[in-house]
Amino acid sequence: MDMTNHTNLKFAIFGVGGTGGVIGGYLANAGNDVTFLARGAHLAAKAEALEKVMRAADIHAHFTDDIQRDALTKFSFVSPMGAAGLYFDVTSEAFQVPGEVRETFIGLIKEVEALGHAMGITFDRDLVATDLRLMDAFAPGLTTSMQRDVASGGPSEFAGLVSRIVTLGQKYHVPVPPYTKIDTWGKAHGLA
User: Fold this and answer.
1) Taking Cα atoms as reference points, which of 169, 149, 159 lies closest to residue 108?
2) From 176's CA, which of 50, 102, 134, 168 has a CA 20 to 30 Å away?
3) To 5 degrees, how large is the angle CA 178–CA 184–CA 190?
4) Which residues of the chain, if any, have pLDDT below 50?
């Protein structure tokens, strides 16, 4: 790399305390692209401040100290809806009535929950009850982005939303039969 031009470089500064903040400030002042990565108390303070700004702008925001739990909680809805919706080729109203689609959705949620427990995650709510309440409030005709991507012939999130659960099930010795069934079907249809 030609270091004769010392500007327009990209830097990531991990830690925005006194030293990291000053060094990053000098680098930015010299015309470089600087990204600050906060940690510890600085991260918490910045995240809480950002949450307040976003809420003031009418953007739902939530600061968390347990990102794995919260991400897996969200995943427990998105992945099962996408997997079951794609597998059964159905829209939201099919999940809202008793039957195979709803039971598969519930089974997939329980598998995500079991994986979370095997990973040492303690959930702060009943995932099945929470996800069913959310699903039952949906308008008819809704699909997931994965369903729309597959329908348009584009790349999809199948590997991350379905196959990844099968891999994690194997890693953590958690049986995931509904995910395995949908993963096998998806692979047979060229989705993974």
Assistant:
1) 169
2) 134
3) 135
4) 1
